[in-house]
Design goal:
By secondary structure, the chain is mainly α. The protein is built from seven helices and two strands; from the N terminus they run E-E-H-H-H-H-H-H-H. The protein folds into two domains: about 90 residues, 434 Repressor (Amino-terminal Domain) (Orthogonal Bundle); about 55 residues, no CATH class. Strands 1-2 form a two-stranded antiparallel sheet. Strand 1 and strand 2 form a beta hairpin. Helix 2 packs across helix 3. The chain is elongated.
């Protein structure tokens, strides 16, 4: 089997596919932990098994061969730009070679996910305001809920790629 390797971000050393998988896995694991998510929560959000998430994070699978759907799913759930994943896969420089259809796919999937988060956030805002109006939600609790929901909506809009 031929071992693939790519030039790293600095343009210097060549990275093996195993190094790419390990770099990507370490990055995704660190973001997941920083966000306070458990592997099981990520797995559920990605509609994958916990073993799959662990394999990606431990560098046993993924690397430069991670499916575009998976890249988008990880980026959306962790609320990070897609480019932060593709850079670690060393495919960022190769994205220019993707045809327009593939680039459109990335944009559409990411925008649909953002739209869903916005709809969910707006529904939550409406629920809280209605509860405050009818007295079923205490004003102090309602204001706290509004603030948290607004922050979630802002975070979903934070990244453009």
């Amino acid at each position: 089997m031929v071992q693939q390797s790519w030039v790293d971000e600095t343009g210097g050393n060549s990275l093996s596919e195993q190094q790419i998988r390990e770099n990507l896995g370490t990055f995704l694991r660190s973001i997941r932990k920083k966000r306070g998510y458990k592997s099981s929560e990520v797995a559920r959000a990605l509609n994958k098994s916990v073993q799959y998430v662990c394999d990606i994070e431990m560098g046993r699978r993924g690397g430069s061969h991670l499916a575009p759907e998976s890249i988008v799913a990880w980026a959306n759930y962790l609320n990070i730009p897609i480019s932060s994943i593709t850079k670690r896969q060393n495919i960022d420089s190769r994205l220019d070679m993707l045809d327009e259809k593939a680039r459109s796919y990335f944009r559409i999937v990411r925008n649909k996910a953002r739209a869903a988060k916005l709809r969910e956030g707006m529904s939550e805002l409406s629920r809280i305001v209605a509860g405050m109006r009818d007295g079923s939600i205490d004003t102090g609790v309602g204001i706290d809920g509004l603030e948290k929901t607004i922050v979630k909506i802002a975070q979903s809009l934070e990244y453009s790629r």
